[in-house]
Design a protein that fits this description.
Chain lengths: 113, 112
């Protein structure tokens, strides 16, 4: 089983739709969690951090469920510009206070007119 | 712009050669991580440097090595290149107190 698993998609949705992605992780000692966005042939960029209490940034909502070991990303009112690959990242602690990040393979979102 | 710069942007090598990739971290960041991203996959963690010391390593063989300099810039060296090393190599910097990473645009390596 991979450490971090994501459905690769693609998710093909019309503008204005609500879409949700899940990401599961296997290491219960994982410490911090993020969603990154990656446009085609570009570098990943931080979308948002993920907390147990849930956090919202405009149309985007992220949630962490430690008991079930998954994180989620909800996008409301999808825009054409939301088309990208969404990567979940799970960090686990390592020696000396460092951390080892593990990326999922990403979920592709295509928003069409 | 993240302020993280990588060079070169593209590189073509042949099997068995050696390559050095470079990364300048964002101002104020003392931690640099390197990733390999194959087509259609997420970035795979190679290693991380914090204050010039290797501070964590992923599942990559010893022919992948690195350095971090006093100004926190970094190099990734790959010896004895193999065809499967063809990928986008990403560098990310962060501050020691935060594990939010800022990525450079990457170096696209092709091994023929």
């Amino acid at each position: 089983r991979k450490e971090v698993e994501q459905d690769p998609g693609p998710f093909n949705v019309p503008e204005g739709a609500t879409v949700a992605f899940n990401c599961t992780y296997s290491n219960s000692a994982s410490q911090s969690f993020f969603w990154y966005r990656q446009d085609c042939r570009k570098e990943p960029k931080l979308l948002m951090s993920v907390y147990s209490s849930g956090n919202e940034d405009g149309r985007f909502t992220a949630q962490l469920n430690r008991a079930s070991q998954y994180i989620s990303l909800l996008i409301r009112d999808s825009k054409l510009s939301d088309s990208a690959t969404y990567l979940c990242v799970v960090n686990k602690g390592a020696s000396g206070g460092s951390y080892i990040p593990t990326f999922g393979r990403g979920t592709s979102l295509i928003v069409h007119p | 712009e993240t302020g993280v710069t990588q060079s070169p942007t593209h590189l073509i090598k042949t099997r068995g050669q050696q390559v050095t990739l470079r990364c300048s971290s964002q101002s104020g960041h003392n931690t640099v991580s390197w990733y390999q991203q194959a087509l259609g996959q997420g970035p795979q963690f190679i290693f991380q440097y914090y204050r010039e010391e290797e501070n964590g390593r992923g599942n990559f063989p010893p022919r992948f090595s690195g350095l971090q300099f006093p100004n926190y810039s970094s190099e990734l060296n790959v010896n004895a290149l193999e065809l499967d090393d063809s990928a986008l190599y990403l560098c990310a910097s962060s501050s020691g107190t935060s594990n939010i990473q800022y990525f450079g645009a990457g170096t696209r390596l092709s091994v023929l």
